[in-house]
Design a protein that fits this description.
alpha+beta, about 140 residues, 4 strands, Nuclear Transport Factor 2, Chain: A, 4-stranded antiparallel β-sheet
């Protein structure tokens, strides 16, 4: 399932991790920092295995609808994705904001296991929410 694979990219499992990951949101300012902070929050929330918070606070209504249309329960998908995640950190490399949409380029892993991906966020009220994982 695409959602589980993409969440594995962003989630950080605690096992085997020697030090706390760097908070890359501090490399940004203003709204870009707020967007990057959502990615960092997803990472730390996944580490704490708090699928309820991911589903209720971090994912957009449109992403939740897409999961439901696929016949997937969000909490189960998140729980399974976090269980399957290797130990790696996510670095937010770039944030681009256009009106109520944001594109976030991230890198995870290192060396031959390094992977780049793009997440989409949308502003819902005053909050940024994850609209798509891994495009």
């Amino acid at each position: 399932m695409r959602f589980a694979a993409a969440l594995c990219l962003v989630a950080l499992a605690v096992a085997g991790c020697g030090s706390a990951p760097k908070d890359s949101s501090k490399d940004f300012k203003g709204d870009e920092r707020a967007v990057a902070a959502v990615v960092e929050d997803l990472e730390s929330t996944a580490r704490n295995e708090d699928e309820a918070k991911i589903c209720t606070k971090l994912l957009s209504p449109s992403l939740l609808r897409a999961l439901s249309e696929q016949g997937t329960n969000c909490r189960t998908a998140v729980r399974d994705a976090v269980k399957d995640t290797d130990s790696f950190d996510v670095q937010v490399d770039d944030v681009t904001i256009r009106a109520t949409k944001a594109t976030v380029k991230v890198t995870s892993g290192s060396g031959s296991n390094e992977k780049s991906d793009t997440l989409e966020l949308e502003r819902i009220g005053n909050a940024w929410k994850i609209a798509s994982l891994g495009s």
